[in-house]
TrEMBL record:
FAD/NAD(P)-binding domain boundaries: 2-304
Protein name according to UniProt: FAD-dependent oxidoreductase
InterPro entries: FAD-bd_OxRdtase, FAD/NAD-bd_sf, FAD/NAD-binding_dom, FAD/NAD-linked_Rdtase_dimer_sf, Pyr_nucl-diS_OxRdtase_dimer
Cofactor: FAD
Organism name: Leuconostoc litchii
Amino acid sequence: MKIGIIGATHAGVFAAKQIKSENPNAEVTVFEKNDTVSFLSCGIALWIGDHVSDPEKMFYETPESMREQGITMLMSHQVTDVDLKSKTLKIINLDTEDISRQQFDKIVITTGSKPVIPNIPGINSERVYFCKSWDDAIRIKNIAKDLKRVAVIGAGYIGAELAEQFSVTGKQVTLIDGVDRILAKNFGPAFTERIQKEYEKNSVNVVLNQFVSKFEDTSDGIKITTPNDSYEADIAILGIGFLPNTDLFSGQLETLPNGAIVVNDYMQTSEKDVYAAGDASTVFFNPTQAIDYIPLATNAIRQGMLVGKNIIKPNTRYLGTQATSAVELYGQAMVATGLNSVTAKEKGLDVIETVIESDYRPDFMLSTTSVLSSLTWEKDTGRIVGGAFMSQHDVSQSANVVSIAIQKQMTIDELAMSDFFFQPNFSQPINYIPEVALAAMTEKQALTFTQ
């Protein structure tokens, strides 16, 4: 059996490894236009802030390690044309410019995503940088120490991390976004208001509700213009989101309007013997019980593994995703899963977001730290659709707990009565996770009495 994999993204790497693990005799060929695989781009901001021991460790596989597993890795090979019905690929060797065609029994599409590049005058300036690939990371890192002023466009995770790292290393930072809150897609207002104050304490110029309308090179940098004002910096870095990198397959597969390839529970596409995974494909989003586009490495890795498990026949069903994520900014751990009150309403859900703040362990301990906690739940059913936590204490695993609760379609009542241990070194008699669920129950009961 010959299997062709287009793209050595996280999904592509894990698909290839799982296919060989499940089917040692399969001939697996991976086509990748770059010369590296498995780059953990989420570490770019950390590298810029000198928190990475060795940048080579930002890769968990190499072409050589993949070959040692019996996988044919054709690096610097770009697939330029595809006939998915006949499973035929046209490939150019970017080093030699030789062109070839290969036919396979099955095709796996793991072409990943590409940065959103809006049609803004001046966006092709050499002073405008992107933050996704290894090449992007090197380009930013090479000039980071010499920068004095940095403008970051986009206040999602990428932009928020970059702005934070540049500010704590002494740069003058402007953070610009067209929406009204930092990290608006991930956290509710109680959380974003608090983290915005941290940026302002660290002298970041936070510019919200303003879209960039023009970039213009100056004698010593770049000017970023919005409808309300203009801002100058040495460079501008774009972190405004991603789109599926699927133009190559246009018209051959069922897709969402943005180009994300629709897959079923077994990573199968609308074309027989063609699979897709990762940022090129859809996910099943458990909070809404519908397909969606959520480009995350965690989704890509699990979907890639599922391709390998299901490449011969459908065996292992996809359990969906809650889009669980985390970030640390100015010493504050911020973790989230599912939806918040704003994003849930955008998806058409009638929800309440319950927010409380409490210390993570008893006050009789010599030290303790407060945790800001939230649960987002449906008004009529009490079904949990989201949660978030923020603290100087490590609350990272809290999001994983609530993620599983969402996946299992638990209600606030069930989570409140779930078994959590008590030990004063680690927790209050009532852990802050069931505590916020209990607060949600109280809120739900109050609604019932007023109706």
